[in-house]
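Subject — a protein and its fold
Encoding — discrete vocabulary of local shapes:
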Amino acid sequence: MPNNAKVFIHYGPYEAAGIVDHRESRLKGLQAILKKDGHTVELVKAEDWNSVELNVNGEQVFKCDINDLDYGSDGELDSLCIKARDAVKKAY
């Protein structure tokens, strides 16, 4: 995949402190690592609780539970962020 791919991150609400809402704090590392590779990232709110899906060219290339992503990280040490980056690189 070229370095300038447009990556759509579909993310659902999750519960924190007893409140269910769409939050982007667990997506910071994912966004950072993809932008560092030169990709354009667009966040899209989804209805599925606890889900994160990466879509490139209309194809889902990665999926995980949002609670498994590191909170507020830069993505460099988060193994899921690294797997997501690799999945985007392999997308066609």
Residues 6-26+35-90 form one domain. The chain has one domain: 6-26+35-90. The two ends are 6 Å apart (CA to CA). Residues 79-90 form the longest helix (12 residues).
